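DM from R.C. (forwarded with permission)

"hey, sorry to bug you on a friday — could you get me a structure for this? deadline for the figure draft is monday and I only need the backbone to look sensible"
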Amino acid sequence: MKVFGEFEFDEKAMQLRRGGSIVPIHGQCLELLVLMLDHAGELITREEIRRNLWPDSNVDFEHGLDVLVNRLRMALGENSKSAGYIQTVPKKGYRFVKRVRFEPSGTEASTSVSRIRIIARYASIAVLAALLAMLFARTRYDRFVPHHAAPAPASSR
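My reply, with the result:
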């Protein structure tokens, strides 16, 4: 889970949330967000964005990128005058300026705890089964293994 400002981005579910509510963001806008979060604080050139989002396309890239960045800014609640999340570096590219923290999501934490509990449960069952098997073997040992009488001491005459 990547957390920035009042947003959380769940990479596994590919969902952006604000205050617990899902922010509708799809397609290339979502891909652009992922790219920016992965390179937060770094300048991402327009060419890098084109290579990642439009690798084999001949669309009007310049206009398409401008529209895409504006859509992402709207989803993040930015207006054109504030650069709270995305900074434009004229004629170069963009920079995600908010600090991004990594936190385990609630599902990841609960999943690892439940896995540990399951493993502990199976381990305790295995130990109990081994103890019972040893106890059973010990109580039945005399039946399966005949006693050898110790040889009588030879008398010397």
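R.C.: lifesaver. The chain has four helices and eight strands.
me: no worries. The chain has a mean pLDDT of 82.
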